[in-house]
Amino acid sequence: MNILIQLTYLASAILFIVGIKKLNRTQEARQGNTFSAVAMLLAVLATLVQVQLLTLPEILICVVLGGAIGIYWSRKVEMTQMPEMVAIFNGFGGAASLFVALSDYWTRAVEQPEQTTEIVTIVSILLSVLIGGVTFTGSLTAYGKLSGKVSGQAIVFKGQHLFNLILLLAIIACGAVVVLETGSVTAMLVLAAIALVLGILVVIPIGGADMPVVISLLNSYSGMAACTTGFVLNNSVLIVTGALVGASGIILTQIMCKAMNRSLVSVLLGGFGATSGGG
Amino acid sequence: MTIENFIFLLYILVLASYVGFELISKVPPTLHTPLMSASNAISGITIVGAILCVREGEASKYLGMIALVLATINVVGGYAVTDRMLQMFKKKKA
């Protein structure tokens, strides 16, 4: 049975690669999207077999609920609001990785503390929480800017970069505490909270016109977050697919920057005095 | 996780990243947004992780269920939105 699961994961990885390739070409793009949807379905089915359908009722409830919300929102959204919708969905993906990592951490720290946890696993959990958290609030901020709920202007305050640096150092400190003592739940929760704040702070100084590039970059981050959860759960399909999205997302971000005649660095340091209102 | 296993997973990571870098090339500007949207749906692969986390346990199970709902919204909504975009695109072409 285990071999069948692994082979399905392999088929799914191949379909993802072919799907993304097809999405590069105008005529085949829609087919490419279908390919990758089938790949996703295969990966989900294989995983359901892996958990031996033990918790099927709970899983079904969550999938039906999430699926209904996803379908409803994607039908309702106006064509002009598509990028905002992508930003929200991407934020949820990041949040999902954050919760997956926290769930696994909770099992190790609180529910089964006698189980030994390797350093690779704990570092992967920390990275998932960090990247997932930044992706979540970063994407929601990007959504707010695009929809006009948050000012599209670059919002900057004095000492912003210094403040971000301090937050980053605090994250490293919390991470070190968790690495040294797996059971430090408080340090983990503080780290998650700081990651959420950091997500807002890195997007808020960037102007509204640059948001598509930011969403593309955050999309790459959510791929990386999925990839790190793969290391937490020792799951190859998560690593392959997460890495595919993480890497191709960076390239797409660069291409989009070029198309808008902007450099990635100037977008990211938007509030830093680089050309504003460019794109 | 044994060290051999970790190194094996690192191989996978490096090779998959390389494929990811190579996959995107000369995308026509009209496809930028659909491609971004599609890869957003693909990043919902974390749904696999969420399913694995809905298992026996207390808080960890509920955290896994929250993750599963969010990931499903990402996957289903992401693919549906991308398909809508590409559908419109096709009509324009025809």
Automatic annotation (TrEMBL), chain B:
Residues 10-91 form the NAD(P) transhydrogenase alpha subunit C-terminal domain. Its main location: membrane. The chain crosses the membrane at residues 6-25, 37-57, 63-82. Coiled coil: none annotated. It is found in: Cell inner membrane. The keyword NAD applies. It comes from the Bacteria. GO terms for molecular function: NADP binding; oxidoreductase activity; proton-translocating NAD(P)+ transhydrogenase activity. It is an enzyme of class 7 (translocase). The keyword NAD applies. It catalyses: NAD(+) + NADPH + H(+)(in) = NADH + NADP(+) + H(+)(out). InterPro entries: NADP_transhyd_a_C. It holds the Pfam family PNTB_4TM. The transhydrogenation between NADH and NADP is coupled to respiration and ATP hydrolysis and functions as a proton pump across the membrane. This is proton-translocating NAD(P)(+) transhydrogenase.
